[in-house]
Structure formats: structure tokens, C-alpha cells
């Protein structure tokens, strides 16, 4: 009798663990909620900071800081390589909107964050009319980076699986700092940095895509891990 009770208790405990995969800081919404999208928006925003810290038990890596490693900008006019690239600021993102079409398996997440990229850099080439070269430390502060991710998903074996996504982005401002431009020539460096910061939009159109695309890819990959680790029925209650 006593042994049976212990076995039964162990089974209940195991089932409880399996059923409790959803991290406690993620509040599920109900599929029957007429304001489902707004509920999910709020849930994402509340869970965001803790999700950005990473969830080791689900294999989810931190997104703040997010390690991008080596990022290469290679166009005819400019060769730029960032190494040991780290981006911070995603944990404080704000959700602008979330739309989910459960019938078609489509969703759109629109969010904004102020982010800072820090890296070692090696650069040689030309930005607009000015030559530029150097190697040292880079810092790029991006104000109100607005990212929109449209993704398709299907339910397989009880889990959501992202089958593809498209993204777009824009920003309000970017500020650059590069140490050791022109081998430390302060006059040339100051002139070039002033020009780069005054023409930040054009400069970012040249150098931002590889870095921002990598930020987005990392976000999508970690969300995929959440979907793989947590059944869809726990993320949105039926």
C-alpha cells in the first residue's frame, strides 16, 4: 500500500513537471478571448525582460546581451568587420502590436527598442565622399529601433513550428563612435566622425543590415526554442 502511494505520487509529480514546462513569468492567454491579440501583446511585454535573460532549462540563450560574434559589411566602397560583437538593450523593448491569425497560421510582432552595439572593428574604404579606415573599438547607439517580424507557423506534434519569416526595420537615430580612426589622427578622426554622425541615416543603410538581420535571426531562433520546449496548448489555452 505504502509503496503504491509512493509510486503514484512519483507519477503525479512527473506529470506535473511535464505539464508545468511553461515558465511562470509567461502568462498564457485563452484562444476564446475576444481580445486575444491584446492579451498576447501584454504577455510578451511582461515576459520580455526575463526571456531576454535566457531560460537555460529550455536551452534558450540570453538576448540581452546578445552575442553576434563576427559581423561583416562587404560592399564595393567599404569593407568593415565587427568582431566580438555584443548588443544590449533588447530587454527593455516595447511591443507596438501583435496580430495572430490562428486559422491561417500567421502572426506579426511589431516592437521597438533602444540598442547599443559594441565590438572590435577593422574598416577600410569610403563613406559617401570621405575615405575612412581604422581598427579599434566601435560603439553604435540606435534610438527607437523598430522591428517588424511576420512569421508563418504550423502545429506539429502539439508544438508550434515556425516555417518562415520576413522582417523589416527602421530607426529614429544612430550615433557612432570609432576609436583609432586613421591610426589615431585626431583631426581626421573628429572630422570623419562628425560627418558620419551628421549623415547617420545614409551610413546605417550601408552598415546596418548585416548586424540588424543577425539581431532578428537570434530573436527568432530563441523563440523557436520556446515553441519547441513548450506545447502550444500551454502558450495559448484552448
Using only C-alpha atoms, the radius of gyration works out to 22 Å
Tell how many strands the DSSP assignment holds.
9
Q: What structural class do helix, strand and pairing data support?
A: alpha+beta
Helix content: 25-40%
Quote the beta fraction: 35-45%
Distance between the termini: 37 Å
Shape: elongated
* Topology order in helix (H) and strand (E) letters: HEHEEEEEEEHHHE
Poorly predicted tracts of residues:
1-20
Number of helices: 5
**Most strands sheet:** 7 strands, antiparallel
Overall residue-averaged pLDDT value = 89
Would you give an account of this structure?
By secondary structure, the chain is α+β, with helices and mostly antiparallel strands. Helices cover 34% and strands 42% of the residues. The strands form two sheets. Strands 2, 3, 4, 5, 6, 7 and 8 form a seven-stranded antiparallel beta sheet that branches. A hairpin with a 4-residue loop joins strand 4 and strand 5. The radius of gyration is 22 Å and the shape is elongated. The N terminus is likely disordered.
SSE topology:
Layout (H helix, E strand, L loop, with lengths): L1 H18 L9 E2 L5 H17 L13 E9 L3 E11 L5 E8 L4 E22 L2 E27 L2 E12 L2 E6 L7 H13 L1 H30 L2 H4 E2 L1
Parallel strand pairs: 1-9
Antiparallel strand pairs: 2-3, 3-5, 4-5, 5-6, 6-7, 6-8
Compact summary:
The chain is of the alpha+beta class. It has helices at residues 2-19, 36-52, 186-198, 200-229, 232-235, and strands spanning 29-30, 66-74, 78-88, 94-101, 106-127, 130-156, 159-170, 173-178, 236-237. It is elongated and about 65 Å long.
Amino acid at each position: 500500500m505504502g509503496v503504491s502511494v509512493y509510486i503514484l505520487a512519483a507519477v503525479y509529480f512527473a506529470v506535473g513537471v511535464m505539464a508545468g514546462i511553461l515558465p511562470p513569468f509567461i502568462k498564457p492567454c485563452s484562444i476564446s478571448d475576444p481580445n486575444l491579440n491584446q492579451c498576447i501583446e501584454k504577455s510578451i511585454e511582461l515576459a520580455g525582460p526575463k526571456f531576454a535573460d535566457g531560460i537555460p532549462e529550455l536551452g534558450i540563450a540570453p538576448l540581452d546581451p546578445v552575442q553576434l560574434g563576427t559581423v561583416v559589411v562587404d560592399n564595393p566602397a567599404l569593407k568593415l568587420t565587427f568582431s566580438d560583437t555584443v548588443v544590449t538593450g533588447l530587454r527593455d523593448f516595447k511591443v507596438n502590436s501583435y496580430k495572430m491569425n490562428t486559422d491561417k497560421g500567421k502572426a506579426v510582432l511589431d516592437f521597438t527598442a533602444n540598442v547599443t552595439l559594441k565590438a572590435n572593428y577593422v574598416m577600410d574604404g569610403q563613406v559617401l565622399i570621405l575615405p575612412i579606415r581604422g581598427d579599434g573599438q566601435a560603439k553604435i547607439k540606435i534610438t527607437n529601433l523598430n522591428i517588424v517580424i511576420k512569421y508563418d507557423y504550423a502545429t506539429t506534434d502539439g508544438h508550434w513550428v515556425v516555417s518562415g519569416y520576413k522582417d523589416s526595420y527602421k530607426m529614429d537615430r544612430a550615433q557612432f563612435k570609432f576609436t583609432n580612426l586613421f591610426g589615431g589622427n585626431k583631426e581626421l578622426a573628429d572630422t570623419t566622425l562628425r560627418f558620419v554622425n551628421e549623415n547617420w541615416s545614409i551610413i546605417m543603410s550601408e552598415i546596418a543590415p548585416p548586424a540588424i538581420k543577425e539581431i532578428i535571426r537570434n530573436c527568432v531562433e530563441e523563440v523557436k526554442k520556446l515553441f519547441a520546449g513548450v506545447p502550444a496548448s500551454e502558450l495559448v489555452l484552448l
